[in-house]
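Please predict the structure of the following assembly.
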Amino acid sequence: MAGISEKRIAFLVEEGYEDLECWYPKIRLEEEGAETVVASSSAGVKKSKHGYPIEANYSAMELDVDSLDGVVIPGGTGSPDKLRRDEAVTDFVAEIDSQNKMVAMICHAGWVPISAGILEGRTATSYEAIEDDMVNAGVNYKDKSVVVDANLVSSRHPGDLPDFLKAIIEKLS
Amino acid sequence: MAGISEKRIAFLVEEGYEDLECWYPKIRLEEEGAETVVASSSAGVKKSKHGYPIEANYSAMELDVDSLDGVVIPGGTGSPDKLRRDEAVTDFVAEIDSQNKMVAMICHAGWVPISAGILEGRTATSYEAIEDDMVNAGVNYKDKSVVVDANLVSSRHPGDLPDFLKAIIEKLS
């Protein structure tokens, strides 16, 4: 349990985030003793695809990369579609990646790292709907429950959450 | 991981179940390799408090206690309020308990074991709203994130999920 208890992980969410793709990783990392923070384009309450509220503690602009050990980006079509348009979000994701800290994404979340310009030549997966966007961004695409390429961890959909979290915890340990 | 990979756990849900109190334990146990089955008063799709659908594979009447290692009962006011009125549900919970298999409950779920008549003299917790019902049923009530009394595991609300799952996994191991 001590493995990741000192780690601090940011979650990037906007309105329409996929309920389980945010909450399962968040509670799971907390179960391991890690600290989680939630950021969005602006601080405040954001509702999931089904209306489950989450409090975003920070705007992306307020996130301090040096104080963090990685980022988890949940899917839900609307959430990454909004986040990718916020330069503070994409700058943050690019900086996390440039420091070789974990970037974990699931489902439609791949849109955010695409717009952060960090996926060319990387191996990853995503929800099938955005496979073309991933390939066009230069991704070596795999259809697997979880794909790990150095600091990049990716999964396809909520059914992959058990494998996604095993990989995330191993990556952070 | 091998600790609970042979275990088979039932979840009891009805319309209005609390999203995270069902899905976090369910995915978490699957992450550990356990098998989960979902039962309700009738088989079919049930929606959470926020509308997240889950497929109930069985009616409670179809559950075979001998093939199971325990039950998790999520909260959400509407779900246990409906479940407790189904004699097949309360008979099932009483039988699981009589075989000393795990009975795990969170939030308002305590209503179901109350109606199954298994809580007298037991130590447990619940959501604060039903503390009086728990005490009147003979519970030695504790206000703690998780309470374990032999085969009975109880927690108060979604914020307790990390502690609830640690205790459930330890109990099943």
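The interface with chain B takes residues 19-20, 23-24, 27-28, 30-31, 48, 50-52, 161-162, 165-166 of chain A (CB under 8 Å). Chain A has a mean pLDDT of 96.
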